[in-house]
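> example.struct
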C-alpha cells in the first residue's frame, strides 16, 4: 500500500467521524466511537508505523529549530506521520469538546462552528469552544 493510499484511508476514517460528531452527536454509534476512541486509536497506529519507518531510515527527528522541522516535513513518511498526528489529535479535541458539552448543555447549533473550525483549523475551533464554554460556565 502506498503512502498516498494510506493518506486517503486516514482522511476517509476521520471525515465520517467528524460528520457524526456534527450531525448526530448523541447517536449511540457516535457515542460508542467517542467513548472508545476507535478512530484516533487507528490513526495513532498509522502514526507509530510511519514514525517507525522514518526513524529506520536514519534521518532522525530533530525538532530543535524551525529549519530542522521544515527539513523533516520534506520527507514523505514524516509528513504522513505528521498528517495523521493532526487528524488524531484534532479528532480527540473534538471528542473532548462533545464530552464537555454533555456536562454543560451548550446548544448543538453553537457546537457546529466549534467542531467545523476544529476539523479545519484545529486550535481556532478549540479557542472558540473555550470562549463559549467560559461564557456558559459564568452564566450558570
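> example.seq
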Amino acid at each position: 500500500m502506498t503512502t498516498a493510499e494510506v493518506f486517503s484511508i486516514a482522511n476517509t476514517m476521520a471525515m465520517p467521524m467528524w460528520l457524526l460528531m456534527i450531525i448526530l452527536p448523541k447517536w449511540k454509534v457516535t457515542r460508542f466511537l467517542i467513548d472508545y476512541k476507535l478512530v484516533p486509536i487507528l490513526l495513532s497506529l498509522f502514526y507509530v508505523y510511519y514514525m517507525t519507518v522514518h526513524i529506520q531510515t536514519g534521518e532522525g527527528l530533530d525538532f530543535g529549530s524551525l529549519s530542522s522541522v521544515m527539513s523533516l516535513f520534506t520527507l514523505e513518511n514524516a509528513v504522513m506521520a505528521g498528517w495523521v498526528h493532526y487528524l488524531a489529535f484534532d479528532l480527540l479535541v473534538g471528542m473532548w469538546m462533545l464530552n464537555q458539552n454533555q456536562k454543560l448543555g451548550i446548544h448543538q447549533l453553537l457546537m457546529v462552528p466549534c467542531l467545523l473550525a476544529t476539523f479545519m483549523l484545529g486550535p481556532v475551533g478549540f479557542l472558540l469552544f473555550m470562549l463559549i464554554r467560559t461564557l456558559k460556565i459564568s452564566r450558570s
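> remarks
The chain is about 85% helix and 0% strand.
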